[in-house]
Design goal:
The chain is an alpha+beta fold. It is 65% helix and 13% strand. The protein has a two-stranded antiparallel ribbon with strand order 1-2. This is DUF2975 domain-containing protein.
């Protein structure tokens, strides 16, 4: 036996809308990944964004285009003839991110479908929520790793050596999202366990 949840019509509409929006996000993510890979594929004038540790620079943003001293924390530059490791890392960063987004959307959409059908704390929902948490965590970490490798390698292609880049900043929102998903897994585990115990009493 599993907890039966019967959403109201308004809730059902909101859940269906969430699935539709998730599908849209998946399609948009895939398109963006394909466009980015098309940029990378020729290995010529590839736009790369890299982080630097407060590097002094000048920009023509003063009156009449006069140069002004600035401190750059992040820049985008064009690099060609990237090393194989850098080239592959940039592509893998896009592929991993797209797969992680699509996989997460699929898992969440199936959970929502089950909720619409009245199934809440089921073994399948518990597995799907757990899978989503793992996918988000590893997808984020691998994307961060490959993107940082690509940025450092791209900068090295210009400078002839690896400069003192700093890794891309860690997004605290992603850490919070992973923690929130972990808490959701715990909640589903508790609900599933309660269902099993209640079933044993019936």
């Amino acid at each position: 036996m599993s907890t039966t949840y019967r959403p109201k019509p308004s809730d059902r509409g909101a859940l269906v809308l969430t699935i539709v929006l998730g599908a849209g996000v998946s399609v948009w993510t895939i398109i963006q990944a394909v466009l980015r890979i098309i940029q990378i594929a020729p290995n010529k004038d590839v736009p790369i964004t890299a982080a630097f540790a407060e590097t002094p620079a000048t920009l023509p943003i003063g009156p009449g285009g006069a140069s002004v001293d600035v401190v750059a924390n992040q820049v985008t530059f064009l690099a060609s003839d990237l090393a194989p490791a850098t080239y592959v890392a940039l592509i893998l960063g896009e592929v991993v991110f797209a797969i992680a987004v699509v996989a997460t959307v699929v898992c969440v959409s199936i959970v929502i479908r089950n909720l619409i059908r009245g199934a809440a704390f089921t073994r399948q929902n518990l597995a799907l929520v757990g899978t989503s948490t793992i996918v988000v965590a590893f997808g984020w970490m691998l994307t961060w790793l490959f993107t940082t490798m690509g940025a450092n390698g791209g900068a090295a292609a210009l400078a002839g050596e690896y400069p003192d880049n700093t890794p891309r900043p860690v997004d605290p929102i992603m850490i919070f999202a992973i923690a929130a998903l972990g808490a959701l897994v715990v909640a589903f585990q508790a609900g599933y366990r309660l269902d099993r115990e209640t079933e044993g009493l019936v």
